[in-house]
Design goal:
Helices cover 40% and strands 18% of the residues. The longest helix has 25 residues. Helix 5 links the parallel strand 3 and strand 4. Helix 1 packs across helix 3, helix 1 crosses helix 4 and helix 5 packs across helix 9. The radius of gyration is 24 Å and the shape is globular. It has three domains: 88 residues, Arc Repressor Mutant, subunit A (Orthogonal Bundle), CATH 1.10.10; 99 residues, Periplasmic binding protein-like II (D-Maltodextrin-Binding Protein, domain 2, 3-Layer(aba) Sandwich); 99 residues, 3-Layer(aba) Sandwich (D-Maltodextrin-Binding Protein, domain 2). By secondary structure, the chain is α/β, with parallel strands linked by helices.
């Protein structure tokens, strides 16, 4: 392994990330450094190795034969290093690393962590906001909060809550809505990445999606909610996203019906990871806090009539 003395580990991390992710920008985001820093590390590593690892075509970096030969070994090695580091963190009772989708983290979790900190002051929580799927058996992540249909057979997965949806809009637009069909008279705010459609809610009233008008489109649920707050139209929101906006009066929910989408919130952990007191405490707190925050009694997971 003496040849490793000639190459900086940070450089190997950079070239591996660029090759795997396909761009310097995405590598910089993963590594938590600037684009310029990654570019410098790539050039320095090429100089240390004495070979060209990427061909530069306009703004693209294309891996050369040397890089293609190296990449599988580098990726495997980096994965092994990550696993080795993760083993030192597992089983600790004073810290938790939680992986969670950015929208859920920003619109719900950050507003409630103070409650967990107060109840369990000895546990330090680190939140990783990402949409990437994480394997808690081979990373430093202790728990994942994910939204999906399940099941997750290769992981320990506890279903926390069924997702329910309902239309929201600004108070001014709400005055124009007297019955469910009136929603078809207003612009509809859409997120193409949603895992459900308006049909989930419209079916309750025997209405068809064809009644819905066009409206602004955003690739993020939180932006859609902001657009609804700004009066740009009606958005089909879900409880953990819109709970505070409704309670604060920023948006109005014109109708009480909230059908379940078939999607759930799941707490996921690795099958081979120890189940610590900190994990149990967070899981119990999360389950109760979710139910309480949206005003839903335990077991009341279907339509609110």
């Amino acid at each position: 392994m003496k040849n490793l003395n000639q190459i900086h580990l940070s450089g190997l991390r950079a070239v591996e990330a660029v090759a795997r992710l396909g761009s310097i920008k995405r590598a910089a985001e993963e590594l938590g450094v600037t684009v310029g820093a990654v570019s410098q590390q790539v050039q320095k590593t090429e100089g240390q190795l004495g070979v060209q690892l990427f061909e530069r075509q306009n703004r693209l970096l294309l891996p050369t034969a040397h890089m293609l030969a190296m990449q599988p070994h580098l990726t495997s090695a980096m994965s092994s290093l990550s696993t080795a580091i993760a083993t030192t963190q597992r089983g600790r009772e004073d810290s938790l690393t939680i992986s969670v989708a950015p929208v859920f983290a920003g619109k719900w979790l950050v507003w409630h962590l103070k409650s967990f900190d107060k109840a369990f002051p000895g546990v330090r929580v680190r939140v990783e906001a990402t949409v990437d799927l994480v394997d808690p058996d081979t990373s430093d992540v202790d728990l994942c909060i994910r939204v999906g249909r399940g099941p997750y057979p290769d992981l320990n997965a506890e279903k926390l809550l069924n997702q329910r949806v309902f239309p929201v809009c600004s108070p001014a637009l709400a005055r124009e809505i007297k019955e469910p069909a009136d929603i078809g008279k207003l612009p509809i705010i859409r997120d193409p990445g949603q895992m459900f459609t308006w049909k989930t809610w419209l079916d309750l009233f025997d209405l068809d999606e064809s009644i819905l008008k066009d409206g602004p489109t955003f690739s993020d649920g939180s932006l859609c909610l902001d657009a609804a707050i700004a009066g740009q139209g009606v958005f089909l929101a879900w409880e953990t996203l819109a709970v505070y906006a409704v309670k604060s009066g920023q948006v109005v929910s014109p109708f009480p019906q909230r059908p379940a989408t078939g999607i759930g919130y799941w707490l996921i952990s690795g099958k081979n990871a120890p189940r610590t007191k900190a994990k149990r405490a967070f899981g119990n707190w999360l389950r109760d806090e979710l139910q309480t925050s949206i005003g839903r009694p335990k077991g009341a997971d279907e339509v609110v009539a």
